[in-house]
Amino acid sequence: MSKSLFRRKDINKVLQDAQSNGKEHSLVKVLGLTDLTSFGIAAIIGAGIFSTIGNASFNGGPAVALLFVFIAMACAFTGLCYAQFASTVPVSGSAYTYAYVSFGEIFAWIIGWALILEYAVSNMVVAIGWSGYFTEMLSKFGILFPEYFSTDYVTARNAALEYEAAARNGTTAQLSLFTMQQKEAFDTAPTIAGLKMLMNIPAFVVTAIITSVVYVGIKESRNASNALVVFKVIVILVVIVTGAFFINTDNWTPFFPNGVGGVLLGVSSVFFAFVGFDSISTTAEECKDPQRDMPRAMLYALAICTVLYVVIALVLTGMVNYKELKVDDPLAYVFSVLGLSATGGVKTFLNAMGGIIAVSAVVAMTSALLAYQIGQPRIWMAMSRDGLIWKKFSEIHPKYKTPAFATLITGLFVGVPSLFLNMQFVTDLTSVGTLFAFIVVCAGILYMDSKGLGKNARFRVPYINSKYAVGGLLVGALLIASQYGFVELLQSKPLLGVFWAVWIGLAVLSFQRNFSLIPVLGILTNLYLMTELGVSNWLIFLVWLGIGLVIYFSYGYWKSKLATK
Length: 565
Fold this sequence. Notes:
By secondary structure, the protein is mostly helical. The chain has helices at 2-5, 11-20, 33-44, 47-60, 64-88, 95-102, 105-140, 153-169, 177-188, 201-216, 218-244, 259-264, 267-274, 290-319, 330-341, 344-385, 404-418, 423-451, 469-483, 486-492, 495-513, 517-531, 535-559, 561-564; strands at residues 191-192, 195-196. Strands 1-2 form a two-stranded antiparallel ribbon.
């Protein structure tokens, strides 16, 4: 049984199977380099820049801009590895398929199961953020959407408790506008059988609409995505240029208000902001030239989005104090806050900007929803083709040429939880599994290179000999860690012990086998980010993993096509 758990798919066989699919099971090849880059930007610039950047700035202050740079580096290392795999195995399935051809079926299942959570949760966050901007947009036109039907129970209850504590201390004047709005939602929510009815109806509705678009076809999705991405980038550039005139440099002091620890509290939020560049690889079978265009698109999208993220973080934390940014719609919120204290024409301009951003964000965030809703059904489709889940998930609609059943299930899987869950909770859901998938992809490149597989790939990770580099970096890192109390660090974060042990092992293996440096750096940076995540992240991931393993051993292990062969 242990041998069969690690049964691997042959790369040549994977490519043959993809080419031999009958017309009724094939997807339409319509995507070029521009389309793929657009999908990448659509997925990356979504809730990250319009929503979760607020919570990250609240924790880390202006220094959160540096965290964006660090995580962008980790994603760049990983992106290069994804690019080589995409060039070697240009089929739908993303990291799931890459794990199948490198480490075997059990790893493929774990990664596929983690990706299902990643894409679903990513869209939940985007849908919740979209809802915040949607209600803000309506308010600018004098339409007051019921607050209790655009939020969740936990957020509203916590705001009510925070208000009660502030009232006892006589500090209610210091509460943010967002807290007051949520407190009012909790107080005014209708009650049925003693339970307050709070739910995020706009988040559910927009998910249903986007699912319908994705169901209809990839051409329609592509055209909508391209138009929305252009609009979204223009909006962000307008915010940057306009916001620069209202920057108060005093807000950047202190730059590290909560120290490095405060900055690292934003790891899950900031990392989430970059999740999505890998979604490009799920559309491999719909690309005209996947081996050439997919690697380029991933790297182009990452580079463009990193620059925008860093600049927008500096602008936001310069416009208002970082303590004001714990909101779900920070871009619109900062202009609204400044408008409260402004007068005359400036006040009118700031209020107008808040409205323009709210309207724009509603349109722009829709493209992120679109990108994730395209990605997840194709992961399910790939797993279904391999026999690991129900065959129904791989059925292609005869007219629209999309994985129809998988798309509908994706809509339900995202829409229903979006009604009731809050932003921070769902953000925490995705990080551990996604980072684990990234580590497996980076390690897969080391395995592929050691076995001489994929030599014909049109894109390969640039080779830098790590024989001495990994060990040298290890020594330097240990010297730095000793200055901060190495033992105390391990006691406060036991998972760091795993990180250091893996680093030592990679240093030895790199010396022996001359590993490529970039995949090694990808493994280490992603593993370190995993150690910075909270206990709740790990517990949720382990529960999700446990559910997945039960399904695999009760169905997938026996129904796998490799098992039947």
